[in-house]
Amino acid sequence: MNRAQTKPAADIARCRDDFPGLHQDVNGHPLVYLDSAASAQQPAAVIDAVARYQREDHANVHRGVHTLSHRATELYEGARDKLCDFVNAASRAEIILTSGTTDAINLVAQSYCRPLLQPGDQVLISWLEHHSNIVPWQLVCEQTGAELIVAPINDRGEIELDQLQALMTERVKLLAIGHVSNALGTINPIHDIIAMAKKLGIAVLVDGAQGVPHMSVDVQALGCDFYAFSGHKMFGPTGTGVLWARETLLEKMPPYKGGGDMILEVSFDKTVFNELPYKFEAGTPNISGTIGLGAAVDYLLGVGLHSIYEHEKTLHSYMVRQLADVDGVRLIGTANEQASVQSFMLNDVHPHDLGTILDHQGVAVRTGHHCAMPVMQRFGLPGTTRASLGLYNNADDIDRLVTGLEKARQLFA
Amino acid sequence: MTGVSDNSELKDLYRELILDHARKPRNFGRLENATHVAEGINPLCGDKLSLYLLVDSEQRITEAGFEGSGCAISMASASLMTETISDLSVTDADTCYKAVTTRLATNTSDSELEPGIDLSYLKALDGVREYPSRVKCATLAWHALHAALSDSQATATTE
Predict the structure, then answer these.
(1) Which residue from A326, A304, A309, A319 is spatially nearest to A394, judged by alpha carbons?
(2) Residue numbers in B near A383 (CB within 8 A)
(3) B30 vs B68: CA distance, rounded Å
(4) Architecture of the domain delimited by A304-411
(5) Which of A296, A366, B41, B138 is the most exposed place for a label (fewest CB within 10 A)?
(6) Is A369's CB within 8 Å of B46's CB?
(7) Mean pLDDT for each 10-residue chunk of chain A (413 residues)?
(8) Is the ipTM of this complex over 0.85?
(9) Active site residue A371
(10) Start and end residues for every CATH 3.90.1150.10 domain found in chain A
């Protein structure tokens, strides 16, 4: 069992007090933050860990023999160990620290796929994907002559599994699929999807950017080959992220970027690359951010991932009920399994107008295409308004959203 | 929770004139005989519009039309613009472009509005100056106008 699941739960309602960013007025109203799927607020524990490092322990990692460098290295590598446990990786060599999910996916596209793909090969994705799980594959397909193919979704925003399966032929060399849709909140049945692909020997990358903040992830139990996620969606700093990959694959993959730290020995004739995970980490890394991410892992485990999941599930159900009661609201994305993300339209009010009106009342939501233009095209919409919840939201936040929507409806009546 | 001042500020952005033009955009539709065409795209928001101008041999805009989709601010601004520029010379229209984009991007006072051309009702758009992320919505049509007048087959973006 993943260690993450065994932690006891804290009183989740009190967690709100841990996030200084939430305690402010915006446009004359107490802030209601419903944009965690874009970027989550950070708890004081994360902010303090970063500040403490900057004040007391800052030096470059893996280099100096002096005390500060040693301390920085211990904190940085300690964060890697925490991340290793967090997703239940088999070894710390499998935790590649990146600048985020996008960086992690590009690494796989360029280092795993580019040497592998031949003209006529295919990379399979779904219609639900974020641009970061589309464009890197388009680039590598252009570079290699391979083809990008897309599994369709239904009107609830769920992947059509039979059609996905039908697309899995021997031509497919990689399936890249989101764990949770950022635009619609759909939780994909990735256990089943991974099993389908592995039966046919297809490698699988899971874009977990929206997975890790909401549920416990055990990469070994999932059975995928790559799992990518970002720090700032799980209450850590921006510019941090992880590519987890099977060690056997990473060993065969060439470096993605060249530079310092990823080498053992350099001469003008030959360079000996460093061992894993450092082979993929060129240059001075985001030391402070990664230390903050380690603190975010501690925080999440302290609250308890199961409690977070249950809290968000209850709150999401409440949000769906309340939104459905607002005259003129149409929910976009109604999958049977949904994370705490909800897209919607209000009559024919454009999402950007709605976003401004809500902001005016201190309610922060995301509006637009959510970096998932194909999803919007699928529903024939220019964009949606999206309310996404974090562990710190409560029913009052939803009520404030509903009040804001009523006001917008009157203004545009 | 929602005070009076709060309402009045919002109504400053969504003035009745703006809402009216957003609901019923004037000059909406393609001009088949257009001499100048430009696309306007706001990549951040996804607002898109096509602007059509009919310019006569004396360099006068005799007709202006647009089609597209976007927020209330972008649609109302495009609608107001087509009314403003119809019957203006190309030079005057471009002067308006400069005046309006400057006015919305900065806190230009009324007296600095270009003399000789009545832009007074564009003041309805002034509310966006309080919303930096929405200024681009209001200027999109005007950027398309500038692009159309500079190059008869152009694409303007707000970026």
Answers:
(1) A319
(2) 45-46
(3) 10
(4) Alpha-Beta Complex (3.90)
(5) B41
(6) yes
(7) 44 93 97 98 98 97 90 97 98 98 98 98 98 97 98 97 98 98 97 98 98 95 98 98 98 92 83 91 96 98 94 96 96 96 96 94 94 92 95 97 96 87
(8) no
(9) yes
(10) 304-411
